[in-house]
Design brief:
- It is a single chain.
- This protein has 12 helices and 12 strands.
- It has 2 domains: 135 residues, NAD(P)-binding Rossmann-like Domain (Rossmann fold); 179 residues, 3-Layer(aba) Sandwich (Rossmann fold).
- It has 337 residues and is α/β, with parallel strands linked by helices.
- Helix 5 packs across helix 7.
- The strands form 2 sheets. A 7-stranded parallel beta sheet has the order 8-7-6-9-10-11-12, sandwiched between helices. It has a 5-stranded parallel beta sheet with strand order 2-1-3-4-5.
- Strand 6, helix 7 and strand 7 form a beta-alpha-beta unit.
- The C terminus is likely disordered.
Length: 337
């Protein structure tokens, strides 16, 4: 069984995959680079029976899946993966299995506060200044007594809310389905979207990307933010109108933004966001890149591969694909919470 692991940028497979526990019939190839070109990707993946994908780093649309005749198994880390065309996979008889990490909420929440503290204290700018011979810099702001507005109060948003209270912050929250009971349980106050944006010193996004949330924060809502407020996004880039955000930052209509997610990943070198140094902190989608999360992911990869080889597939998101042979195409066939 030929298996490919894609986009292993951190060389994590060498550390976290239990190689000695894999069946003898499994031959794993690890790719550490990223292939954005569709034709090149097809050529790379054509020999493989199974592909392990790290979150949504490499999209697998129908145009790719239908050109991979050997592919029988896709394994995605982190549960849902919007970059895989599930209908196409099912029609091709490709089982898509998921490897959730119960510890990923902590990972993303911790990064959220790392980004907030970086903004509040100007840590990246202070560090660069020190290395260039400067001593001293800007005056930071305290998180204690500030208001954080959470867009989304699911597992990750709820964890952020609990950490915020340890810092002495007031917590507001909004999502379309949020109830007073859930907000109270998390130590937050449920408010309308505009109030959440207008009253907050930090606005942090924890919504799932959907048709309803795409472009949610456009010029209008960004214009409601305080000029001293910061925006943090560890969810999905399209929830924000990136052009409107770049304009707001360039014109200093908000104090700054910390972004871990981008419209195109890896981010192109000519992306306008890279030119905005003052008041911005940018990280390469590392919200889930933590030892505990990767332990869960790679343990799950191994378990799914062993079960597959033994003829007892587990954790399939589309179990109907298991009954289809190669090419057996049949007819008929929001909050990040």
């Amino acid at each position: 069984m030929q298996v490919a692991i894609l986009d292993d940028w951190e060389d994590a497979a060498a550390r976290f995959l239990a190689w000695n526990d894999l069946p003898a019939s499994v031959d794993v190839t690890v790719f550490r680079d990223h292939v954005p070109d569709e034709q090149e990707l097809v050529e790379r993946l054509r020999p493989f029976d199974a592909v392990m994908v790290m979150r949504e780093r490499t999209p697998l649309p129908a145009e790719v899946l239908t050109r991979l005749p050997n592919l029988r198994l896709l394994v995605s880390s982190g549960g849902r993966n919007a970059s895989i065309d599930m209908d196409a996979a099912t029609q091709q008889g490709v089982a898509v299995c998921s490897v959730p990490s119960p510890r990923m909420s902590d990972s993303v929440a911790e990064l959220t506060f790392g980004l907030m503290l970086s903004l509040a204290r100007g840590i990246p700018q202070q560090e660069r200044g020190l290395r260039s011979g400067e001593w001293g810099g800007t005056v930071g702001i305290s998180l204690s007594g500030k208001t954080i507005g959470l867009l989304g109060l699911g597992k990750i948003g709820g964890r952020v809310a609990s950490i915020a209270q340890v810092f002495g912050m007031r917590v507001l929250a909004w999502s379309e389905r949020l109830t007073d009971e859930r907000a109270e349980e998390a130590g937050a106050r449920r408010v309308g979207l505009e109030e959440c944006v207008r009253e907050s010193d930090f606005v942090s996004i924890h919504l799932r990307l959907s048709d309803r949330t795409k472009g949610l924060l456009g010029a209008s809502l960004l214009g409601l933010m305080k000029p001293t407020a910061y925006l943090v996004n560890t969810s999905r880039a399209p929830i924000i109108d990136t052009s409107a955000l770049a304009d707001a930052l360039a014109e200093r209509r908000i104090a700054g933004a910390a972004l871990d997610v981008f419209e195109t990943e890896p981010i192109p070198t000519d992306d306008p966001l890279l030119a905005l140094d003052s008041g911005t902190v940018l990280t390469p989608h590392v919200g889930y890149v933590l030892d505990t999360t990767y332990e869960d992911f790679f343990t799950g990869y191994g378990e799914i591969l062993r079960a597959w080889v033994e003829g007892s597939p587990i954790d399939a998101l589309n179990p109907e694909a298991l009954s289809r042979g190669p090419g057996d195409v049949r007819d008929g066939d929001e909050d990040r919470e």
